[in-house]
Write a structure and sequence with these properties.
The chain is of the alpha+beta class. The protein folds into five domains: 2-53, no CATH class; 63-162, Immunoglobulins (Immunoglobulin-like, Sandwich), CATH 2.60.40; 168-186 and 338-433, Immunoglobulin-like; 193-332, 60s Ribosomal Protein L30, Chain: A (2-Layer Sandwich); 442-554, OmpA-like domain (60s Ribosomal Protein L30, Chain: A), CATH 3.30.1330.60. It is built from ten helices and 28 strands. The strands form six sheets. Strands 12, 17, 19, 20, 22, 23, 24, 25, 26, 27 and 28 form an eleven-stranded mixed β-sheet that branches. Strands 3-5-8-7 form a four-stranded antiparallel β-sheet. Strands 4-10-9-6 form a four-stranded mixed β-sheet, with no helix packed on it. The chain starts with a strand and ends in a 7-residue tail after the last strand. The relative contact order is 0.11. Residues 23-41, 57-62, 117-121 and 398-402 have low confidence and may be disordered.
Length: 561
């Protein structure tokens, strides 16, 4: 039939001390109805009780040192580490301003009260909050809120409830205890420096999101620690500047380009400003002698009367850097990077989360995999989307270093809506070796191709140098084998790109045979756009993806030279 409330109320009561009610002050109701008559009671809420009504007392009638106040609400619930606000009402606005001290009496040390900076509309009220420390024990507490001014003191009761902290917990395990390494490879890779930077349409400034641009102060702390080709390209200008400072005789020509009026306004002027921007960055920010830098406008190799693909035109929004042939090897020399890769079984594993207690509601989770001090993989998510099984196809990782499995540690970290954090203990996936000696491989990328091109430029000094380098390495190790892998950017149809990548690899194959390398020691294959090195949405990414990679497998230990 609803809800019955029985009790008493006090209206306009101002009590100093304790209120004692005689036993006969209570009013009891004897309420009974025959079961058959329950339908006479309407559904809803019924209140029965006794109300004590007092006439409001004027301030002149009361004690002069009394500071009347009231807390609304007078019952608060809060969690450890949180605060709960309430309104504190005084008789007048003047008394709000006079309060000099607020404190809680009878509450545990972890609970304290302080005024809020916020004010509410009524002038005789102020906002106060009770704060609970993280260490406050859950439970119900009756406290006395005391307010003091210079000459008055007021008190009001507060019922405080510190809620129990919900448990945040999980376990994590791996379906694989031991990884068997079937092959390990020590790889020495060249990271080529292609002296070309790209600009947004109608812009004469490089984007910080695409290049690591340093201030003069940052240049002093620049440390060249580049391990993969995208990082090498982002730091292209910083690396070239370091080499120009080390060789004061080298002069760089900075050649600005624009695709022309087809896509940009005032193309000649824009191309010049692009070149000047790069010059100023190298000189002002990176400390290159201005006498080593010359700016000129380049002539784009494009017929402006024809229609061209937008992405093709985007690759002409650039600046090229050119040095004399005798300085090319020193200024534009590739960066040498060494790493290790492995093949192992199984090729993947799963991490299983169990006994998950989300605490106050899971907001973030993070599964971290580490090898020594290096973080090698992170799986993360938000809200309550922690899957019970997280798959790690580590065999598909681009950089599969053998030291991954010297000691791969993993831990699951959780955070809930209260800010609680929990981490599982670190656990280890062991490994065992089948192959005693790692194979020795050199990777030399040949980024020599323009858009939709597969012909080798026989006049290119860079081409002759690279092919001669590969041939020399093959001749120095009579048992070495070389694989040539052709790649394209993502422009065009898949089938066309597959054929284009095959032609690129075959032309390099033919050139090495012409240079005296036996065809039986060479193998070529095209992958089309399947294995990009960089982002195909950017012109620099497409430039890096148009390549042939030479993988030389040595039969003996590589020289440390």
């Amino acid at each position: 039939v609803g809800r019955l409330r029985l009790g008493f109320a006090l209206n306009n009561a101002l009590i100093d001390g304790q209120l004692a009610l005689r036993s006969n002050a209570a009013l009891f109701y004897n309420f009974s109805l025959p079961t058959s008559d329950l339908g006479l009671v309407s559904a809803g809420s019924h209140e029965f009780g006794l109300a004590y009504v007092f006439n409001p007392k004027s301030r002149e009638e009361g004690d002069s040192d009394l500071l009347p106040l009231r807390a609304t609400p007078d019952s608060l619930a809060l969690r450890p580490g949180e605060s709960a606000p309430f309104a504190l009402r005084f008789v007048s606005a003047d008394e709000v301003q006079e309060v000099m001290e607020l404190k809680l009496e009878g509450a545990p040390p972890g609970l304290r009260v302080r005024p809020s900076q916020a004010r509410i509309s009524s002038r005789d009220e102020t906002i106060v909050s009770v704060q609970s420390e993280n260490t406050t024990s859950p439970g119900a507490y009756e406290a006395l809120l005391v307010a003091k001014s210079r000459s008055k003191r007021g008190e009001t009761n507060l019922e405080l409830k510190v809620l129990a902290t919900p448990k945040l917990f999980a376990r994590i395990s791996s379906t694989v205890d031991t990884v068997t390494i079937t092959e390990s490879r020590e790889i020495r890779e060249e990271l080529p420096l292609i002296p070309r930077v790209f600009f947004a349409v109608n812009s004469d400034k490089l984007a910080q999101a695409r290049y690591d641009l340093l201030s003069p102060a940052q240049r002093e702390n620049f440390f060249q620690d580049v391990r993969e080709i995208n990082s090498a390209y982002r730091n292209l200008l910083n690396i070239i500047a370091e080499r120009l400072r080390a060789n004061s005789k080298a002069v760089a020509t900075i050649r600005g380009f624009s695709p022309g009026a087809l896509i940009e306004s005032n193309p000649q002027e824009l191309a010049l400003r692009r070149g000047q921007y790069v010059r100023d960055y190298l000189s002002n920010n990176l400390g290159v002698n201005g006498a080593q830098l010359q700016v000129e406008v380049g002539r784009p190799d494009i017929e402006e009367t024809k229609n061209h693909d937008r992405l093709r035109l985007e690759e002409l929004q650039r600046v090229d850097l050119v040095v004399a042939p005798e300085f090319e090897e020193e200024i534009f020399a590739p960066i040498q990077s060494e790493k290790k890769e492995i093949d192992a079984i199984p090729k993947s594993c799963e991490f299983v989360a169990s006994e998950v207690s989300p605490g106050a509601g899971l907001t973030h989770w993070r599964l971290t995999l580490m090898a020594g001090a290096d973080t090698i993989r992170v799986f993360a998510g938000r809200h309550a989307n922690l899957s019970q099984r997280i798959e790690w196809d580590w065999q598909a990782e681009q950089q599969r270093r053998t030291n991954f499995w010297q000691e791969v540690k993993y831990s699951l970290q959780l955070q809930d809506s209260w800010g609680q954090e929990f981490s599982t203990p670190w656990q280890t996936i062991a490994s065992k070796q089948v192959q005693a000696q790692p194979k020795q491989i050199e990777k030399i990328p040949l980024i020599l191709f323009e858009f939709d091109d597969y012909q080798l430029d026989q006049t290119s000094r860079r081409l002759r140098t690279k092919l001669a380098q590969i041939a020399e390495k093959m001749k120095a190790d009579a048992l070495a084998q070389c694989e040539l892998f052709g790649h394209t950017d993502a422009i065009g149809e898949d089938e066309h790109n597959m054929q284009l990548s095959q032609r690129r690899a075959q032309n390099v194959f033919n050139e090495l045979v012409r240079m005296g390398i036996s065809p039986s020691r060479l193998r070529f294959k095209g992958f089309g756009e399947q294995h990009p090195l960089a982002n195909n949405d950017l012109p620099e990414g497409r430039m890096l993806n148009r390549r042939v990679e030479a993988h030389i497998r040595h039969a003996q230990q590589m020289s440390t030279k």
